[in-house]
Specification:
Helix content is 26%, strand content 34%. By secondary structure, it is α+β, with helices and mostly antiparallel strands. Among the domains are: 66 residues, conserved putative lor/sdh protein from methanococcus maripaludis s2 fold, CATH 2.40.420.20; 98 residues, Elongation Factor Tu (Ef-tu), domain 3 (Beta Barrel), CATH 2.40.30.170; 82 residues. The radius of gyration is 52 Å and the shape is elongated.
Length: 394
């Protein structure tokens, strides 16, 4: 009964001693195994990367300055036609309607001429009467001269001739009456002519105020006419661009005009400035002339230009020789360009002579065949190494 517990005690002691030793031996063996099989990394030397860039080759040429501006179509000549005599309108031309076209010299409106015809007849009769009186007075003057000769011959002391004795004042009075009657006749005839109102130029009837059967007073408005031989477009241009525009009545800078709503196009030329700048934007007013805006003459078949239409004008200014066109986005903030020069970056200062919406023209600072870098560089440093993208010119 006493042996059994002692054997168990020996077994327990052996387990407590042998098991930790075995576990320790296994741990040491595992450590050396993994240490002998550890992956060893070899550090490679750093490789220097060279930025790859895109470029565009630039070459000089002849460039024309182009100025874009917005404007409104306006009449070059607009007049309000008024009647110079009063009366009843007895006739109007078929074209005398709003939007109608009336050739120069065509009768637009006729006023009843009856009263003015009677006035002409009356003035003719008055002239005939005073002309007869003038002729009679000339005869009286001749008789007065003969009477003075007889009286001088009969009088021992002679008779002195005076202007009154020769009836010169009476003759002058009769002559003045004749001239006055002629003027009255001319005025009556002029009033008669004024009963027929004619178009002063090839006109568009912008508005009309009377019609057949209406009464009109002297200086009464009849219609508003616009000259259709030419229109004008007033645009606003920055003042620093005026020196690039040629102003002349017949040889001004050519302009292409496009309607913002209809898409129609016309050609014009810059003729003058308005002589003033706008109060708010401080831009200069420029007048563009458009001949035959309705396409009735030399430009027959062209779309008609409408008054008050909003248009865009592209003005062709002076030309530049030996100018390099460069996209505006490639000019850096400090007015410099990035140039690819034999595998390295060159930062070159330039002075633009003309700037448009998307292009810059440069006359100095570039050479033919230069490669301007169009790619972005995060930290551009002069002289840094670069390489061209595949397919780029070298």
């Amino acid at each position: 009964m006493n042996q059994t517990p002692s054997k168990r005690s020996v077994g327990v002691i052996l387990i407590k001693i042998i098991l930790p030793v075995c576990l320790t031996a296994l741990g040491v063996a595992g450590f050396w195994y993994y240490k002998s099989n550890t992956v060893k990394f070899k550090r490679k030397p750093a490789v220097k990367t060279v930025p790859v860039v895109d470029t565009i080759k630039v070459n000089p040429g002849r460039a024309t300055a182009q100025i874009r501006a917005m404007g409104i179509v306006q009449p070059d000549r607009e007049v309000v036609i008024k009647s110079q005599v009063a009366g009843t309108i007895i006739q109007v031309a078929p074209e005398f309607v709003q939007g109608g076209l009336i050739p120069k010299g065509q009768t637009m409106v006729r006023i009843d001429p009856a009263d003015y015809t009677l006035a002409v007849n009356k003035a003719q009769n008055a002239l005939a009467q005073v002309q007869a009186d003038f002729d009679i007075e000339k005869g009286q003057q001749q008789i007065a001269k003969e009477e003075l000769k007889l009286m001088a011959a009969m009088s021992p002391d002679g008779v002195k001739e005076t202007s009154l004795a020769l009836r010169k004042p009476q003759l002058e009075q009769a002559r003045v009456a004749v001239e006055s009657a002629k003027s009255d006749l001319e005025a009556a005839r002029l009033d008669l002519e004024r009963t027929r109102i004619m178009a002063p130029f090839h006109a568009l009837v912008l508005s009309k105020e009377v019609d057949e059967g209406a009464m009109t007073a002297a200086q009464g408005a009849l219609a508003t006419l616009v000259d259709v031989t030419c229109y004008q477009v007033e645009v606003q241009v920055p003042m620093d661009r005026l020196d690039r525009i040629r102003f002349h009545e017949t040889h001004g800078s050519p302009v292409r005009i496009r309607s913002l709503y209809a898409g129609r196009e016309w050609e014009g030329r810059v003729v003058r400035t308005t002589g003033a700048v706008t109060e708010q934007s401080r831009m200069a007013g420029v007048i563009i002339r458009v001949d035959d805006p309705l396409g009735l003459g030399s430009a027959k078949g062209r779309a008609a230009m409408l008054l008050d239409d909003h248009v865009e004008a592209l003005i062709e200014g002076h030309s530049f020789d030996n100018a390099f066109p460069v996209p505006r986005t490639l000019v850096r903030e400090d007015s410099s360009l990035w140039i690819f020069n034999d595998g390295h970056l060159e930062i070159r200062k330039v002075a633009p002579v003309w700037i448009e919406n998307n292009r810059v023209f440069i006359q100095s600072g570039l050479s033919p065949g230069d490669l301007v870098i169009s790619s972005d560089l995060p930290t551009p440093v002069p002289g840094m190494a670069l390489t061209l993208a595949s397919g780029e010119d070298r």
